[in-house]
Amino acid sequence: MSKEYPPLTYKEVTQILKNLGFTLRDKKGTSHEQWVKKTDRFYKVTVDYPKSPFSQDLILYMAKQAGVSKKEFYKAISK
């Protein structure tokens, strides 16, 4: 486990997404949440609540879906 990139909890990931300008889409009876953001492009990040704390692979995947690097994703927690 890296000190620079520790595992993230569901609460931390949702705070990051809010700080990046994402909003939660209505749930449709599944554990997967969809967070969306529309700028010049449409972004959709899928968050699977039961997988918390999230592995580095999932964090990297969510960062890519959000259109940011892993480093930028982690930085967004403190915005």
Task: Note down, in words, how this protein is organized.
This protein is 34% helix and 20% strand. The chain has helices at residues 10-19, 56-66, 70-75; strands at residues 23-24, 32-38, 42-48. It has a three-stranded antiparallel sheet. Strand 2 (32-38) and strand 3 (42-48) form a beta hairpin.
Short description:
This protein has 79 residues and is of the alpha+beta class. It has helices at 10-19, 56-66, 70-75; strands at residues 23-24, 32-38, 42-48. The model has no long low-confidence stretch (mean pLDDT 91).
Give the helix/strand layout:
Layout: H1 10-19, E1 23-24, E2 32-38, E3 42-48, H2 56-66, H3 70-75
Helix content: 25-40%
Strand content: 15-25%
Radius of gyration: 12 Å
Determine the mean pLDDT.
Answer: 91
- What is the topology, as strand order, of the major beta sheet? 1-2-3
The SSE order reads: HEEEHH
Q: What summary fits the major beta sheet?
A: 3 strands, antiparallel
Shape: globular
Distance between the termini: 24 Å
Oligomeric description of these chains: single chain
Total of DSSP H or I helical runs spanning 4+ residues: 3
Query: Which residue ranges are poorly predicted, with pLDDT under 50 across at least 5 consecutive positions?
Result: none
Overall SS class: alpha+beta
Task: Please describe the structure with a list of short key phrases separated by commas or semicolons.
79 residues; alpha+beta; 3-stranded antiparallel sheet; 3 helices; 3 strands
